[in-house]
Structures
1.
Amino acid sequence: MRRTISLFIAIVLILVTLGVLILASASSAKYDDASYFVRRQLIWLALSFVAAAVAARFDYRLYQKLVIPMAAVSILLLILVRIPGIGTMINGSWRWLRIGPLTVQPSEISKLAIIILFAWWLARCQRRIDELKLGILIPFSLLACFALPIIVEPDFGTTMLVSSVAVSMMFLAGVSVGPLVITGLIGLMGVLILIFQNPERMSRILAFLDPQKYEQDKAWQLINSMRAFAGGDVTGVGFGNSMQKYHYLPEAHTDFIFPIIGEELGLIAALVVIFMYVILFVLGLRIALNARDDFGRLLAFGITLMITIQALINFAVVTGCVPTKGLALPFISYGGSSLLISGIMIGILVNVAHASIKSPKKTSRNPFKDRVRKV
């Protein structure tokens, strides 16, 4: 397990370092001050290292005592962000709170709050998880308390992300598959109805289906993202030599930073980055499987899924596999709130892993034990 922890931390550090280097290149054409975003990212990175170190030493079991106030504060922040004068609107979305010189994104905080809340509730109700009220109605009601404010921002990408992670945690906890699928589909239908009634979202779907037709409008980023990958070929055009960062990719330093990696460093480097997230997924699963209790197991699973599913969605968006969504690439994209929360998540995972070393005895090793028993 110590090797697992060391390798996990090493990969995160590699991704963070790569992120700073690519950010320096991708943001160099954004402002006259080429180091503006890098300086801000380094400040958040320092805060993230401190937060990760603290979280790694904080006994994860104590989160069970703090889960209710953490969830309440997170939901309150999601509500406040939508109030004019308190929240800040950027690019048509109310997703940020400005605190002095810093801008905080409450939906990032909600990702961690949801994981802790669901891990606590599902572990607490493990013996009665098959009951409709405890296993389905209450968890989905809790999820709605987070998802509704997020979707109102609007932020459909984060809504789908947190919902998929929450449902996955319910499945791993042993919730009955039938009711879980039915309730999940009902929720998905509700989100799809909202998307179809939103002209902005529908235009993105149309652009995804026919990017050439909307090349000068909604498909602008997608088309130029694909051009970045094509221009990079196998070995890339060289660090700092990207052409797409010169206003062809408006979000080259945030959501669309991965195409800059593909353009400057090439296909091989892009595949290596993807492979590192795969390794993070495998190592996260190993930490979860060796957790000392159900709460730690579900907590580790939730964090692993949140990081890797978000990365998967980002990869899918920038390669044109799914419609455009505003989700950053963990550890690499510019964004202080994302970097800070990701750091805390890593610290919690490390703490769960260290706890399993000190006390290897677990209440349930196999996360699919309930699935096997029912079959």
Note: The chain has one domain: 2-374.
2.
Amino acid sequence: MNSSRRNFLKQAGSAVALGAFAGEALAGAMRAETAIPQAENDSSNASSPGGKKIGYCVVGLGRISMGQFMPGVKISKDSKIVALVSGHRDKAERIADEYDVPHNAIYNYQDYDSIRDNPAIDAVYIALPNGMHAEYTIRAAKAGKHVLCEKPMANSVKECEQMMAACKQADRKLMIAYRCQYEPTNLKAIGLLRQGYAGKLQMMSSSNGFNIHAGEWRLNKKMAGGGPLVDVGIYSIQAMRYLTGEEPTSVEAYSSVIDHDGRFTEVEENVVWNFHFPSGVLAHCATSYGTNFLGGSARAIGSEGMLELNPAFGYQGLHLTGKAQGKPSLDVAFDNPSPRQFATEADYFSDCILQNKEPKTGGEEGLRDQRIITAIYKSCAEGKPVKLTA
């Protein structure tokens, strides 16, 4: 980021002004490039019975929205793109033409609230920097729209609670885009662990990160809320929770900066932390902006064997292996190429709206993670374990 842009961000007097620039800066953090054999969760089928498709307004035209979510919706069965929000009209018109979105359904950050007057919009997909999630979720709920919000949910517990309250008051659904909870490789690992493939679970580990470029908005604490922990470390937090099926009771964490090259003046470069779970399971996790973990990993070790997801969190190419006493070795890979994970995620939320069901990764799930993130940072600051409450 050059000095003029940095000054702009520091001097911006409102989230609207920030949004006009930062909404376009969203960069995809997770990249996995290995293709794997045919998917068992293909969403590119006929539309739902009755033909109703949920119309999404995409808020922020960055890499994750244009490169993953929107192409995913294009191959989905219950979802469609019907509107865009962008600070760059020319860019938005080009994308609108690609997705057959009428130009009168292109909004900017100043007139965002007028989405209330567009009946084609059922839900918004918020792909903005983390510091803008709360504002644009709350404004969407007040406009009568359901919300699919990218992770992390927000920058604080208070903001998460405000988002949940706004959606509840408006009787709108809120889902946090934890796509790995809808992805077949991770779901397979969860199922095998519940079935006792590895025996009694003893310990866990997970790592995730990438070597960040200077100038990324993720290095701005106001915009991002933190460093790699909130960006890609959250995948490891999630994995430890859904693989164990438990909530951690305490955490001990440490952070550091190794590369004093100007990138890490506001956020950490590395974080490691240890979880203790009610069953006695211990978990060790690490995340970094200073090295590339190549799609991340998650390992579960039990009394009879182990399961490993590696890569565990990328957009494609996920791989599950396992070895256990008296059981066949596992080597599982689904044909689930990018952007199919996003098609599955969009259709899941669309189905929740169509069937009036609460999403399994609703606001409560995002709030739990934010409380854990807050505790991890507290442990880093205080140099001692922090207890977690349910």
Note: The chain has eleven helices and 15 strands.
